[in-house]
Amino acid sequence: MTLQEFIKKAKERENNKVKVVHLEVEGFGKIEFIRPTESDLIKFNNDLASCIDVEYKGISDEEKRKKEINIESFDFSKYAAVSSEFIYKCCSFLREKEVRDMYPDTEFYDIPLVVFGQNEVIKIASELNNQFKGIETRKEVTEAIKN
């Protein structure tokens, strides 16, 4: 492979990534979300995995793990916090000084929770993760590390 071929393939891969998503957010209408960095996508997915109770993480068979995970094994408050941080990084509106000044006693990453509410934050973050192919990115990195 030549340098030019490498550059061409890298550009193609970058051009194929979803860069901007417009999601319908309850009570707000369509809001623009920008693709986070690959590191932020991977971090979000790793943090989501940590929301599952430890006793279930040890199950290596994915089908069995899916059957074993239930509502009691899931930390929803952590899931909401992780989702809120992810949304904050993707939505430029939430990072605007005027919006941050509206919530002076709130940590920046918690602003989406305050603005949208827990259920909507979880819904938005899940959709963003799907749109930006976060789970696939995490799997690619995991496979690369294994090899």
Strands, total number: 2
Cα radius of gyration in angstroms: 18 Å
The largest sheet is: 2 strands, antiparallel
In percent terms, what proportion of residues is strand? 5-15%
* Fraction of residues in helix: 55-70%
Q: Which structural class do you get from the secondary structure elements? A: mainly alpha
Shape: globular
Q: End-to-end distance, in Å?
A: 21 Å
Which strands sit side by side, in order, in the main sheet?
Answer: 1-2
SS element count, helices: 10
Uncertain segments? none
Average pLDDT reading: 85
Order of helical and strand elements: HEEHHHHHHHHH
Protein name: Phage portal protein
Verbal overview:
It comes from Fusobacterium ulcerans. This is Phage portal protein. The chain has helices spanning 3-16, 38-49, 54-57, 62-68, 76-90, 92-95, 97-102, 111-116, 118-131, 134-146, and strands spanning 20-25, 29-34. With 147 residues, it is mostly helical. The protein has a two-stranded antiparallel sheet. α2 (38-49) packs antiparallel against α5 and α2 (38-49) packs across α10 (134-146). It contains ten helices and two strands.
